[in-house]
Amino acid sequence: MRINSLGLRAKSMLALGLACVIAMVPAGLVGWNVLEGVRAYFGEAFAENFTRLNREQILAPVSRELALSMRLADSHVTRRWLLDKDDPDKRDLFFAEAEGYRRDFRDQSYFLVSAQSGHYYFNDAGEAFSDKPRYTLDPDNPDDAWFFNTLDQEADYNINVNPDVQLGTTRVWINVLVQEGEQRMGLAGTGLDLSGFLAEFIHDHPEGVTPMILDRNGAIQAHPDPELISFGSTTGSPGEGQAIITLAGQFSGSEDGARLERAMAMAKATPDQVPLLAVNLDGREQLLALAYAPELKWHVVTAVDLGLAPVMEGAWLRGGMLAVAFILVIMLLGFGLAVDRLLLRPIRDLRQSAGAIAQGDYQVSLPQAGRDELGDLSRAFAIMAQRVQNHTKELEERVEERTARLRQSNLEMAAAQRQIRESIDSASLIQRAILPDARLRDRFGPHHFVLWRPRDVVGGDFYVFHHDQRDRYLVGVVDCAGHGVPGALMTMLARSALDQAVNQLGVDSPAAVLSHADATVREMMQDADSQREVTTHMDVGLANVDLERGVLRYAGARISLYRSDGNRVETVKGGRRALGDRRVGQYQDTELPLDYASTYYLVTDGYLDQAGGEAGYGLGQTQFKALILAHARRPMPDQAAALERALEDYRGEYEQRDDVTVLAFRLGAGGAPTSETVISSPS
Asked: How confident is the model at residue 629 (pLDDT cuts 50, 70, 90)?
């Protein structure tokens, strides 16, 4: 049988079989050597990625619990009660606030220990609430040594795996110091259930992979084998008769412990790096990867047995296969040379004809049709060319029709967007018209400034000013829920409620104005169908300046008043309940003597919560107080520029998160003179 008489499939199979026989043996040998050579590389990449993932999975929930514990320990209510534990009102206030923290904690539990009495208070979701101590710690009891050791440590907190004998539970405990100045009053915090913690972060791992957690001294805090966990190592109080268990103590190699110590120091110095080292662990050579979590002062460690772990799976295995395939391609060039004469030349002629058809030349002459598969293909191409020609003509007609429709739709959409933009610009002019800039200028002159920066063209922040015939006036800021158009509409509702309250009650009592406006807002919104879907609350801060009596009265709904003379900053806290909040209550006036050497500031949370800095956190009250302390004695235009520049510098590349309003004023010896007003608004 002559080769030329064979069909295309037979010719291809014959050539492919010959090439495979020639290529398989050397390709297999080369591929095996290549895979063995990169095995260690894949193992290191697997260990590093697995360790980084474990660190992030552990860091997220524990960091959240740590942040909540710090807030509980630093709460003004907590510290006031520990300073006066015999006061029943302070005790009730603490337990009411602590219940809110308990619901937010992951395991819905919290504890508080008094350094003065040694009383240990604990509540969780599994037991009935109690405001009585669960037990009293004894300095002579070894089981209670963790508490007294923690009080003596310099750190503000520690995270420790330890069983609580009195409560009969084993947890990852977060212990945070409660202190007033230099006085250490006790500990507060929570605990993560150890069994659930291990099930989520430790037990779910591939074969041959052992994840662990070490404290700063190398003691094992978490391990798939509970027998290897070193309880109480962080607080320096392991259980009675129990030695501290370290990872270095599990090594078989004499030098492995020193190498682990150097790797831990390297990971701590550069938390972004993951040091790797080979050790003899459990009688086998294993690869260790270490990642340091500075927030928790923990080392997340992964031990990988390269003989068992699936290090050759995934992207790296595909890369190895591509390398082997590349070698096969080189070796199969011989196959290409063999089939070129038999197959490629006839196919090339047919391809040229097909290319001409693809360019729109449907009158091209196809290669002469033979009696093999190529001949059948040529005849099929002739039929296809005629059909493609017919379909192309029909498609061009449809495309032209649809293009015209799309062009018309684009024109209509552009017109609609232009109308929306014009409407929002008009709304901005209307909103700006309700702001009392002229009255503030007449009353305070250059002794005030306003930073008013809506996040969008319109926003939910505005400021108010009222005065009566006896030289008393009311100045304040309002932060309505929402941004853009919804927030702007809420400002109209809020302005109406406040104006009505002032008209009926006058300006003497900001608290009375807030209470009346709160009732008005509730009455306006009680029948609204959208109340369940749209947030309608608003934060307000109002200050009544009585020049005749020389006093200032302040009341706020989640907005505080700041006062600074350049030497110190004083804060007058607002109420914890916003206007329109689901809770109902009264607001209280705080009366202060007028300080003509100080500057008074009202600020909405858009300034305080603006994300920025290296970590993307909110600016916060601490930095805001530092800003006004540094600039309180400067002229008001300079203060306005400094606060605006500080906000922009802190924000950096982050987007503006909320509407921003800062209103500041200063009183002269006989009141505020009249002159030019300093107002900063969006360009």
From this structure: very high
